[in-house]
Amino acid sequence: MRQRTTFLHRNEDAIDPASLKVSGRTLSGPNIRAVREDRFTLGLDELPAELQELLRLSQELYIRWTSPMPYQAMGPWSSRLSPGLHVFYTPQADAKANVASDHEICLLLRRLGSVECSSPNKSFSRLPNDRFSHSTALEYYQPVYDLTNFVEYAVQYACAPSDAECKTCFDALKQASSLDFSYDTISHVVKVTALWGRQNQPLSVSAPASHRVEVGLLTPNEPPHLEQHEIGVTGLLTVLGEDSKPAPTMFTFPSRHKQASTGFSSTFLTPTGLHPTMQLHINSNKPPMEEDTYCALHALLTLPRTIFADKYQLEDTLFLASKNLTALRYISQPVDLEAPDYVMDIWGSSVLLELSTPVAESKEGFTAEIPLHLRYQSPQHGGESTFEVPYPAVFWACAAEEGTKFPSSPFDRINLGYDGLFGPRTLFWHLDPVAKSGSDQLVIGGKVPVLDLDKSRSINTVTSIVVVVGFAWVVYRLMMVYLRTGYGVAQPVKAAEKKQQ
Amino acid sequence: MANLLSTVFSSPSLVFTAAFLLRAILLYTDIDYLVFTDAARFTFSSPSSSSVSGFLPQGSPYDRETYRYTPLLAYLLWPTTPAAAASLPGPRVLWASWGKILFAGADLAAGWLLVAVLRRHRGLSGPRALQYVGAIWLLNPMVATISTRGSSEGLLGVLVAALLWAVLERRVVLAGFLLGLGVHFKIYPFIYAPAIVWWMDAERMGSRSKPINRSSNGLLGKLQRFVTPERVVLTLVSLSTFAALNLAMYALYGHDFLQHTFLHHVTRIDHRHNFSPYNVLLYLASAAKESGGFKIESVAFVPQLLLSVVLIPLVGAKKDLAATMLAQTFAFVTFNKVCTSQYFLWYMVFLPLYLPHSSLTRRPRLGLAALGLWVAAQAAWLQQGYELEFLGRSTFAPGLWWASLAFFLVNCWILGLIIGDLGSSSTIASASSSSSTPSSASNKRKN
Fold it and tell me: Of A272, A360, B233, B243, which has the highest C-beta tally within 10 A?
């Protein structure tokens, strides 16, 4: 196992390098306002047996969890995903492995707090494999909003009962902003990355004797000739146990993801009814790059199966334009437009929409509205159920210059669900999600009217009685006609008699 | 005003012009129309590139989700596809509305057939026939709206009206063809088969080819008398039309065709709110994990089919075919597990034929009460539906549920009135026998 811990801070938050102490296998210093990333690189044999088993059956597996709490991103860690648990997965091609992994992956996801996964065949959606090779085959999402279950599982596996330090280490994950797990058969190693958004935090890292730990204390740096698709940093690197003092460093690397330095918020218009409208408020209509670069603003919605978008409704260009939308660029398949929530196995759907930005001389905010539809949910006591939708990821996708290449960088994050839908030379400029006032989480939702079980006790009986009564009445009327005139032509004589009565 | 109305109704060209103008507003579009036109576009585009559409049906209409109709409908809407619109003369916008024009045209054609039936077979004068058809069908805003918004029910209207017309005109082969086509199009017209077959007895059809053996009254004799050449021809033509269309569509679209056109109606859950009395019960039952006790919804087809396929045709067909077909359709829609306002068109097409001789017009207060209750129950349901759909209030129970049960009972009561009129429909029998139909002499005789 190897560990790389990076603190990235703004220039104004810098601390005096002299205040850093390296003693033995520990680096410590004063508290620092920074983003912290811990990356662990593990061999397969260092993992729990059930995970090893699953990875043997997998070609690629990316599990990405994002916290519902807003956080400040920085530098290479600007890429965003909707809060919750995302899984991107390609099983081994051979069919036998497929059957076995069906069982394994859902078993693993249950450790993370997901309970609804039954098997990739039923619960996962298929990603398009005709565009770019770097997409996984399957996608899954579950609204898991905290890592308590995972932390318990990890502590049980990794920490000796008496090892309090180990426990504290994992407990810190409960405050993490995101946690990534990556594996592919080519590199044959597992990378686990935890990220804490920019905040004041203790600067203290210890290396256990068993593994190598490298600590970086970096700040953004813009050397001359820095390209728009590159990020430059400068600062101090220390390998614990080897270096007696931090060594200065400065380097640049390409990054597909950058910060757009503007924000957005999301809400549902009320009343939501059965057809809620998601409103996105974008703080600025200005693209992040110069005018000669092609940029388009996109929103990637992750919709749990309770709620869905109708792709046919989103084809009408006039209708789209009236909502400040340009086009539906991608929707995962299949999306059943009719089925109720409670008969479905698939997790839900993801929707990529291109937004249209109003043309204006000055920078100004605007809103876009996305029409969505709720499924019927199972009847409840009280006649009300709820739905929750994580904030979408909103970003500008810009075409990088001809010939730009993105070789793997030390901080690269690929397979986010949407990067595979764009060309290889695309730069993503991410907008910061801002929670609506009155909420501290990046999750929005509302109420869904359902059949009230308290008022449904007599439905079966009363409906049956009413149908039988109605039927009996009609049969009685038929009987009367039959008894009077038989089944043949009504005879004039009898009709005349009736008139006399 | 009354004078003006009577002038309008005395002139067929005026009524049909008014009916045409009523349908000239093609502004609003129902979701159904988008489904049809999408399906047409998918049908006429090659599978490899979805954007290029051509002149041959290379694709499948079932690539459009929720397309649950025969591919024939998508073929009919070929002019709405982009490529077709580009190659056809005239403005594109007009061709995009081709389907609506077609459905509205079908409305007018159905109206024309209804007038013909009223005049030739139900003893009404031209102006009176026009009056009924005009007021109830041609100038009915509900009928016009459904067609011009792009629902295909107008096509069913003309098919069913033509079927009745062909039967009354003794055009057996044409009737068989229309019956087969109608069932292929929308399944439900199969309920008319027993009524038409029962109506087509030897006496009425003036069958001469087969000597009637009066002496044998046993089962065999009765069976021999029942199997007339006309009945055999009708059965064979309708079955072979139905089979040929289905085989052709199966050959082209395989399982998709079977699944979406027919099987879907067997397996669907029907949980979304609609007028059916079973609706809330079906929602409750579809979400229930385990089942226990008697479930009326699983035998819903029994009262429905017993009434519309067996009892009503048996008692009514020989008395008054048009009123019987109305009662059958009314029963079928009322007792169905799904019911939306488009289904009302299925029986409305028969109303102009039934009303002139009905107790509802003989006793206007009864007629108004029936109409009032029918509208009021629907209005109550729609109000509850609005609160649910747009305001998000849980009105499933008791609001929507009670409204749907009330609507059901109103419908049963009206159905009882229509059936009651079957017993006193001698006026129609005599009226039609006095008209110049080929077999008028045999009409008075009983089977």
Answer: A272
